[in-house]
Amino acid sequence: MTVNATRPILRVLDGEAVWPPPVWMMRQAGRYLPEYRALRAEAGSFLDLCYNPDLATEVTLQPIRRFGFDAAIIFSDILVVPHALGVDVRFAEGEGPRLSPTTSTEDLARLAPVLPLDRLSPVFEALRRVRAALPPETALLGFCGAPWTVASYMIAGKGTPDQAPARTLAYRNPDLMRALIDRLVEASIAYLVEQVEAGADAVQIFESFGAALPPALFGPLSLEPIGRIVAGLKARKPDARVIVFIRGIGGQAAHLSRTWPGDAMALDWSLDLARTLPGLPGTLPTQGNLDPLALVAGGEALDRGVDAVLAATRGRPHIFNLGHGIVPETPIAHVERMVERVRAG
Amino acid sequence: MTVNATRPILRVLDGEAVWPPPVWMMRQAGRYLPEYRALRAEAGSFLDLCYNPDLATEVTLQPIRRFGFDAAIIFSDILVVPHALGVDVRFAEGEGPRLSPTTSTEDLARLAPVLPLDRLSPVFEALRRVRAALPPETALLGFCGAPWTVASYMIAGKGTPDQAPARTLAYRNPDLMRALIDRLVEASIAYLVEQVEAGADAVQIFESFGAALPPALFGPLSLEPIGRIVAGLKARKPDARVIVFIRGIGGQAAHLSRTWPGDAMALDWSLDLARTLPGLPGTLPTQGNLDPLALVAGGEALDRGVDAVLAATRGRPHIFNLGHGIVPETPIAHVERMVERVRAG
After folding, report:
1. Is A250 on the interface with B (CB under 8 A)?
2. C-alpha B248 chain-centroid distance
3. What CATH number is associated with residue A35?
4. Is the complex ipTM higher than 0.85?
5. Number of structural domains, chain A?
6. What is the mean pLDDT of each run of 10 residues along chain A (345 residues)?
7. What is the domain extent for residue A112?
8. β-strand partners of B206
9. Segment holding B340, helix H or strand E
10. Residues from chain B contacting residue A269 (CB–CB below 8 Å)
11. Distance between A133 CA and the closest CA of chain B, angstroms
């Protein structure tokens, strides 16, 4: 047995029904933590924080120190990939990201053909430092955005309801869309390989926006590109595990689980685990899915939400998590209560 | 056979597989039409337009004259119900609606206990005038928003990503949420009864935001209240048909179809009809689901999208529609092409 395989999250990702389930939270390094807000105030822009190995290391470790989560996830953003490719990316407070739009063959031609890994070296440096500082039983996760989600930001230059600009482009100019997705697939493989090289035990691929794709586009623009990233990563890093989170798959989970492109399926808060999990292969690890707003509310809503996840996942390989990122308004005491309740099984 | 039953949409709603399928479009009276924009410019505020029987009648009829759709849907907005209950509602151009928030027992107590139907009399007057002007084979549809969707606007005072404020309130103050939903159920029944009284053959209930509800809340806040509206309407108007549109049910369609709260199930554009429909009762009428952005794009994307809906629904009781409202950028010629292709079967 390798050292890695003693980490509870990795045991789950290898198919073991660890109990009580290991636990971490999407966006666990973030604004709900006073120590994050203090450090954030000093850091300049959001991207400055992502690209500063000292600060990114510190921010990544903060929730581990406070809650003893079973995984640290490197503090970064899915938009560092387009940024490294040459897109202008800014994060204005309270506005969400703003990017120079990529909507033509000429725009695409201006981007780097191959991901310039040196532009992302601070991320890899932070991964190495976090790994060195983590307790041995704590897994370290890398991540990237799925190509469709990243492309939808690149095309619109920002987040948009139902990704309308990207969907329209997909209909109007399928060749350009395919070329952009291909560029992102290759860049994501290179990025994830290097994250694993720097110490990530596993990676999560975030498809925040799969749900708005019509059926004719969901396969070619979401599922297949994710599958190519997983295959490309594993061709070079056979031991890397991949958690794939496609938000909004809802009742399609069972159908998709038969050809799921990763080692584990992360589920959003809208899924009924008690009804969904019996339809999935018992060997497919899952992750999720407490409603982040039940964590904000606390009290009975929180307890009932935690208990529902525990009851539905007992006996299965499952990683306890939220069904979406933790929100800034979340009281620390509610997170403590959640972790305590999960660890009590 | 009544006159009503000769209207193709009503034949479908009664379970007949009419071919080619009747067709209308959600938001068919709207900004993509130059004649709408011309009239809109004269009308003052958006609510002024909704509450002006002359103008609302004219706007409702515009798409019928141009495209000969099989149904007219009364021009109005789901927020006229909270407005009539006493909520301050404004539509600022390019901003979406803004409402005085309802977040406490005191706020709720300030609203009318029973829907003041007289405040909505211009809507009923417009329905009567539209009915009188419509060709006999054209159905007239009324509508309202589902309680959860309307409540989510009332609580946040505006549209919000994933309805976070309303979801948080549902966890923190379930009694208040229930009371608000109950108020909207009763108001919606009264409103729909009066719409049918004024000439609507059928009504559609719009649940735009069901998808973000966690499983423990979806039943009590979305499905059951809609069911109570349908039952309340039919208790007083047994001949009224109800189309229920819950956006984002995705792979849950088959499961939900067994206890669907309306006469017909409207499906959004993300659903794969070819895979979904075989799992539904063959007697359950469906409606949908062309991606409105395929209609914007036109060309092959449009033709393929139309053909996919036709191929999947042949032999079933189905009403051709978009999978969401038509968007302002849609070229008129694309709508003409869509209607022509649908009518060619």
Report:
1. yes
2. 14
3. 3.20.20.210
4. yes
5. 1
6. 74 97 98 96 92 98 98 98 98 90 98 98 98 98 98 97 96 98 98 98 96 94 98 98 96 94 97 96 97 98 98 98 98 98 96
7. 4-343
8. B145, B245
9. helix B332-343
10. 214
11. 36
